[in-house]
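=== RUN LOG ===
request id: a7f3
mode: sequence -> structure
chains: 1
length: 356
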Amino acid sequence: MVIALTGAHLLTPLGDSGPSTCAAIRAKLGGFVEHPWLTALGKDPRWDPPEPLRAALVPAIDPFEAGRERLMLLARGALTAGATALRLRRKELARSAFFLALPEPEAVLDALDLGSFGAELLQSSGITAVGAAHVSRLGRPGTLELIGHAATSFANRQADAALVLAVDSYFDHPRIQAWDERRRLRSERVKDGLLPGEAAALLLFEPYTPPPRRPDDPDPRPPLALVETPAAANEPNPLLSDRASTATALCDAIRGALAPLAPDASVKWLLSDMTGEAYGGFELAVARARLATALAGARLDHPADAVGDVGAAASAILLACAAHGFARDPSAPDAALILSSSDGPLRAAVLARRPR
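=== RESULT ===
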């Protein structure tokens, strides 16, 4: 089932709107600074002092805010500002389903009590939606899972629109410490680690009715992108295992996402949530070698080199970047394949097309 992406609002280290962030990413700008109080372990933790933590912070949020409150500030900022920017009226919001993508479960996040996060967010924002918030805790691929739920809600006539909000931030001391101790953060002692970031992204989806429309149909918002049904699979050797990825699941997800195309068709634009860690780069390289015909000559973009690893917000930003490219770059391909991988076994992909 095809649904329409009709709005995108981003709050990231590079901007407080979708166009500003996506334009900065296209211009290869970076949002990295030294964190004012968090540090990384030195090259030899036994002898060397801590070194500055290079990170991508949202300028609008006080760097000394941390934990659940920081996540709430990011989420509420994107939701309320996004509702205004997208001109969503109260009656329209009341007929919309609300979906929320949050970080993958970690022991250090248990203290944040994210189980009640969605309900508290809606209440504090003064927004009423159809039913309770549907929450995904799949991390980076969470947005793609929620797109499938949004399509189902449209097919069952449960909602007229769907708001998908994705938010994540690394900037809580226990979380940074845990990732640093696991040798996941980039530093002098870990050359292929990730650079931590944060972001919140609000996407608006609506049912898509291809033209011609009936004269009595209400004027819809023009689609920014047409989004197909996502595909997903599970990798037998995930990142935290002691073996390299087989890329089997990523290949299966790509094949599933490209199913709407002709069997011999190829896609010329890939957007990946790779974080800079060697595991993800190796996995994608294997997948591109195995699917050489379908991905031949495809341009590859990975916004983490501009905003860092933004966790659960990554897939939403990739979709916004694809939509921005369709609107602002006539030379951009007419279809973009969004690729997303969790730290666990889940691999997901979705095809976005330029609207006609």
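=== NOTES ===
The first helix runs from residue 18 to 26.
The chain has ten helices and 13 strands.
=== END ===
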